[in-house]
C-alpha cells in the first residue's frame, strides 16, 4: 500500500516536526477504537484517555490529513445553523442544551493548547463582516441571541470601527467575537496527537479501516491488522468513504479552496489586519481570511459540491482576495489547495449510535474546528454513561439527500447557485 502524504499546503510546509507513526500490522485489543485522526477522533481520544480508557486510533493517511489539517484555521463559535433555527426545529429544552454547548468548542481548544503546550499560533478575536445592511441586521440579532445563552465577549462594529480592524472598503459593519480566533490547524492536530500518545494512547497511520465487523465485541479490520474493541468511534467525516453505508447516505463531501500568499512583511500585513483578527463575511458562500504566524495572508472561499479538486484553485480564489484587498495585486501566491468538509441537508451535525457500541459524529457543514472538539467531549461522556448532551445532538432530525447519492450533488449545486445569486443581489 502506497503511503498517503499531506497535500502541498502552507500548513504541511510549516508543520511542526513529528516522529513517524507505525502502520498496524497485528491483531490488538483495546477499550475504544477511534477511526480517524482528525479533530473529532483526537478530541474523543484525549477525553477518553483522561478518563481512564485504553484508546487506539486508526488513521488512513496521516494525523490531520483531512479537513483538520487543511481548513481556514478559524475558531468560529456556534453551528452552521444557529441556535434560533435549532430552537424552531426541536423546541426550547433541547435548544437550551445545544445553545449552552455552542461556545464550548473554542474553550476546549484553548484548554488543550495551554494544558499540553501546543505550538499552533493561537490568536484571539474573530470578525463577522457585513456587506449589506440586511446582513448587519442579522449580526445585531445574532449578538442578542448569543447573549441569551451567556456568550458575552461580543462587540458590534459600525462602519468606522470595522475599518480599524480590517482594511477593506466592502463592509458596512460587523461583529467582533473575542472568544473566536485562529490557529495553525495542522499544528493543533499534531499537538493533540502528541498529547494522546503522552497519555498512553496509540495512533496508527497509513492504516485505513476497511471493514467493521459488528456485534457484541466489534472488530475493525485494516489491510494488515485488526482491532477488537468494546466501543468504536467513527470520526472519518468527509474522508470516511462507504465504510458505514448508513452514514454516507445522509451527507455529502464538499470541497473548499484556500490560497496562501508569500510573506507580506510586517508593515503590509499589519495594514490589512491591524489587530491580527480573523475575518469571515456574512454571505452564504462566504470568504474567510487571516494572517499566519509568519505574516502571510490565508484566504479561502468557494465550495465545490461533490468534492472534486478544481483544476486551478488560484484562479477561483485570487479574484476574491483582490476584491477585498486590491493592494495585493502584485503579491505572489505560494500555496493553493482544496480540502473537503461534510455537508448535511439540515447543515447540523449528525451524532448517534449504531447498535450498542458504535458511536459517530459527522457533518459539521463548515463549522468543524470548534464543533469537533465539543463532539469529542460529548462522545466520551456518552461512553461513560452520561448521555444527556449526546442525546441533544442525536435527537436532531436528519434526512437523506433527495435522489440518493446520484442526485445529491446537482441538488446541492442548485441550492448554492440560488444562494450565490441572493448574495450578489443583496437579498
From TrEMBL:
This is Gamma-glutamylputrescine oxidoreductase. It comes from Pseudomonas fluorescens. The gene is puuB_4. Residues 31-381 form the FAD dependent oxidoreductase domain. Pfam families: DAO (PF01266). Keywords: Oxidoreductase. Coiled coil: none annotated. The keyword Oxidoreductase applies. GO terms for molecular function: oxidoreductase activity. One of its GO terms (cellular component) is cytoplasm. It comes from the Bacteria. Its EC number is 1.4.3.-.
